[in-house]
Amino acid sequence: MNKEQIQKAIYDFKSILESETKNLNEQVPQWKNSISDKMKKFKRGGLFVLLFLVLAIFAQAYANVSKSSETSQITQNIASQEDSLILKNTKYANTANQVHQQPKSDTPQKTQPTQNETQQEAKAITPAATSAPPTEETSQTKQIQRSNQTQGGFLANTKSGKYHRATCRTIRNPNAAHFVRYNTAEECIAAGYKACKVCL
Fold first, then answer.
1. Could you give phi then psi for residue 70, rounded to 5 degrees?
2. Per the CATH hierarchy, to which homologous superfamily does domain 137-200 belong?
3. 45-101: per-residue pLDDT in tens?
4. Helix locations, 102-183, DSSP H
């Protein structure tokens, strides 16, 4: 390369550097302004974040204080209930001790009944004894007496083991083979039959 070519190249390089430096100098203040705007915005956002954090801390502290007050009230109520229970237990214990410490002479003594009282009690008991429920034997005798007063005889059912009046409404065919005729209820009972509950 010739000297002239070298000098041209150097001159071109210098011109390029000068143009680039001018462009940079023009762009620097724009960058500064944008950076400052961003910093202001960041500061504002940081203030909001700090305020939010402070409010959150105060809310947590208030919640802790309210919880501690509630727990203290609950403990006070429990303590008062325990004191009342202790007082009741002491009262019951004192009354029990007083009852046990009372002399035996305070207990009422049983007096022997007089002759008049015993006679009155015996009179009060005798009607109850006389009004006892009738036994099976007496009921059977009454059934026999009542059934013997009827006419027409009795029919004993060999299948059911019961005897009926000849006019009983449960008998549909009195001439059937499983019916046995008797004159009295005593004969039916002696044969081992039981009285019908409908007609007797």
1. -65, -45
2. DNA Methylphosphotriester Repair Domain (3.40.10.10)
3. 777 788 888 898 988 888 888 777 778 788 888 888 888 888 877 877 777 777 766
4. 115-130, 136-148
